[in-house]
Amino acid sequence: MSAVELAAHGLTLSGIDYVRAIFAGELPPPPIATLMGFRGVEAEPGRAVFEILPGEEHYNPIGSVHGGVALTLLDSAMGCAVHTLLDAGVGYTTLEVKANFVRPITAATGLVRCEGVVLHGGSRVATAEGRVTDSAGKLLAHGTTTCLIMR
Predict the structure, then answer these.
(1) Whole-number Å distance between alpha carbons of 54 and 59
(2) Of the options 3.10.20.30, 3.10.129.10, 3.30.565.10, 2.60.40.10, the CATH number for the domain spanning 3-150
(3) What is the pLDDT of residues 4-24, one digit of tens each?
(4) Which of 49, 100, 113, 141 could disulfide-link 42, Cβ–Cβ 3.0 to 4.6 Å?
(5) pLDDT digits 0-9 by tens, 54-72
């Protein structure tokens, strides 16, 4: 199934059913998840969790994981959290995303987890927050997003 076909199929399902089907492996993951090596592990209404095992392939020129990896995790988790609240046929897109990087991530960090939680799920706009943590629960990055709901 191509990425375009996957997205079109997703509109036939409720957001929670679509996200859960991808996370369960019943539908293929979006190409960005495969490219970057992260996976969805938990989804419930208003919440989504992703995990990644960072490696040197994620490094920037200064020897740590590029901030774009953490930002992509945040955007994915927060966006999917919003998606879990949507009815079939309703889409969304990120209008704005902001991240704060508070600790470096390296290959030695081990498994990294990113949880997105909806703060406001309106009919036109939704907001969410996300936290990137290591396996001990130490905060590595956090962020917020605003999403446009497309009915």
Answers:
(1) 9
(2) 3.10.129.10
(3) 998 888 889 999 999 999 999
(4) 49
(5) 999 999 999 999 999 999 9
